[in-house]
Amino acid sequence: MTQVRTARFGLGQIVRHREQAFSGVIVDVDPTYSGPLALTGPVQADQPFYRVFAVGPEGGFIVYAAENVLEHDPEVEPLSRADEAQWFSVDAMGRHAPRSHRLQ
Fold it and tell me: What SUPFAM superfamilies is this protein classified in (predicted)?
């Protein structure tokens, strides 16, 4: 029997990394690990992985992180409407997708 996993976080959601000092917004979700063939460290590949647009002192960067190292960040304000319009397409149901992808 195949087990179906549901991603805990959605596009546009603000998260923080439990072990590293950054917060960011989810911009893409993979149902399982789809990075380079060799995983480094004790990471389970059979969980959702997220591309997180994080902001640091030198500007923005993309991080590929496993679900089990991310958590909701209640201390960070949600994106403003202007930020949403700049970075995402948002449909009538509030779902987010990177500007380069269309929502269906």
Answer: YccV-like
